């Protein structure tokens, strides 16, 4: 259990660092971070603290959807935004545009790897992914439709509030899925346990992938 907790905490912290790198690149962000940046611009609150508060508000939406948070859900709310807030003062935006693109890609790669680390610990869905699965289970909406509807709404709201939408928004949407798809099996604790019990053959349960990704911190 200690190893899984450590894996969760490290993964969430690295996820926040990756988000901070993408923010500082300044070429666009994923929908939820656009939303957090927009609120930050309007209120003066640090974007990391807004990420934490947004996660808490989203968690409240689980109540009518009859979802139950896990340890990983609470850790997600507390750690990702805090890591973003602590990392941003250590970064600076490079002047050359290509350097900013490279910075964003590095942040996206780190977010994808970190997702594999914390999702592989299997401590439960983050608040945003729980919202998607809750809509699916409560109303029968397809997961893709729930995700598209929610993320399109927060992206539009974030853009109207002054959040950064651009090339990075597209790059993240295209790249994050494949990166997470590769990284999750590398850090999946249940899959590793299954292989340890039966060398050369994982258990059927270990083949079930963790819940998917909806940044920041799912």
Task: For the structure shown, list the relevant keywords.
single chain, 218 residues, mainly alpha, 10 helices, YczE/YyaS-like, Membrane protein YczE, membrane, transmembrane helix
Spell out the blueprint of helices and strands.
Layout (H helix, E strand, L loop, with lengths): L1 H24 L5 H13 L3 H14 L1 H4 L5 H17 L9 H24 L6 H13 L3 H18 L6 H21 L1 H9 L21
Helix pairs in contact: 1-5, 1-6, 2-3, 2-8, 3-5, 3-7, 6-9, 7-8
3D structure, described in words:
The protein has 10 helices and no strands. It has 218 residues and is mostly helical. The protein has one domain. Helix 1 packs antiparallel against helix 6, helix 2 runs parallel beside helix 8 and helix 3 runs antiparallel to helix 5. The radius of gyration is 17 Å and the shape is globular. It starts with a helix and ends in a 21-residue tail after the last helix.
Mean pLDDT: 87
Number of strands: 0
Question: Whole-Å distance between the termini?
Answer: 22 Å
Estimated share of beta-strand residues:
under 5%
Specify the number of helices: 10
Quick overview:
With 218 residues, this protein is mainly alpha-helical. The protein has one domain.
